[in-house]
Amino acid sequence: MKGIILAGGSGTRLSPSTDSMNKHLLPVYDKPMIYYPLSVLMLAGIRDIMIISTPEDTPRFQKLLGDGSELGISLKYREQAEPKGILEALTISEDFIGKDKVTLILADNIFYGQGFTTILRDAIKKHRYATIFGYRVKDPRRFGVVEFNDHQKAISLEEKPEEPKSDFAVTGLYIYDHRAVKIAKKLTPSNRGELEITDLNREYMKWNHLDVELLGRGFAWMDAGTQEALFETAEFVKTTQQRQGFKIACLEEIAYYLGYITKEVLFEKGKSMEKNDYGQYLMEIAQRKHTEQYWDSVAHHPMMGLVENE
């Protein structure tokens, strides 16, 4: 399984904050936004990941994350010259995907909930063709909406419908087989001049090959693409971390408990940032004497799911 993070776009909804910076590099409380989708792919067990961004911003992501070796993963980068839609991320990554399956996530989507990792890993394990994730929302007219049958097969997809056929929005997380690239290349741009991910999902739906995984009560899905949403998400992360004592989307912590990096590497990374809370948190984890007991508690943390060391 390969992973793709789409971190392109113009970020106009967050202007002027994004006039000189990619929105996915903006902080969501105590870490860059890109950390959150990257943590999702890492928790899913995906180690070969491509980040797609603009020509101007790709070097900034490379400076921030490097080749991924410090996290025990492999990161590659590709440029999207113009914001031509989500679907173009697949065609840009054709040689990277090859004959593998791929999980695509939008870089401004943040997921949080008990057992999320387990749901995601199970979805990948049983995945055959295409899988989308549905999340119940109060006002589905603002989103892409999926209607599904009793077997959780999608039977209709609509973009911001006036009369929604369900209360479930389609999140920015998708799993596809290798055929997705070939299908995407046959689709034509919409009136917006973009290749639409919904059109790809409809193709799979025609063949009854589009599965829906539901994120139920206790889950939070946030699209941090507006000023208000970004502020609300940061407040959510701050409050949750302060009350529970765990950090959400702490990449080094995840890498350590998945067995990708050693305790010594974790400690040195923390020491390089020892003047702030993030660095002190990493050092504290590395210095714990009863690692196995701590792992047992962390394994049940909402952003860790029930993941075992690999």
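The above is record 1. Record 2 follows with the same two-line structure.
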Amino acid sequence: MPKLWDETVESHRRVVRETVEDAAWSLVTEHGLRAVTMAKVAAAAGLSRATIYKYFADVESILAAWHQRQVDVHVAQLTALSEVADEPGRVLRSVLGAYAEILAQRGQHGPELGALLHRAGEHRNSEELVDELLRRVLTSAVDSGQVRADVGVNVLVSYCRHALGGAVELLSTEGVDCLVELTLAGLRPDSSRQEPCEAR
């Protein structure tokens, strides 16, 4: 089969999948998870049920695919911010700010939908990519003297992850911004500390 044909077919499949995913997400956010059926998704997407069953087994699998697409977009966004040629402290601030905003969006899903979208272990590879990205940005900021060097970088990554995790519970942009500032304050060099803190 010619390569152009393969690409056209794959492009069509991607469009169909994304149309179904977006339709399901729109229905769930408007009516709630329990109110959405495959028939309703098909009608909203303008497709037959038979067509969407070729791609997805149920509503949950559609939402999982939608969420993975969002995760991929977020990882790409954070990666782009981390690679900006700028002063390390500003790069760190922009990465942590964007990461906090992503977590704040997660908090808007509600408990039932949030539990479905964020099952333990399902996005481990993406989380590892974010950890590596944070490790790289933090290392650069440590080397430039803008982040404390008395703590191992893996501890700093864990600190940022947990500190910014509180953004899930915040409803305002101001609250998220404040959390980012508090996190950055904890990263600044502390001349009063004499003994290095070893990573555990």
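The domain at 64-190 is CATH 1.10.357.10 (Tetracycline Repressor; domain 2).
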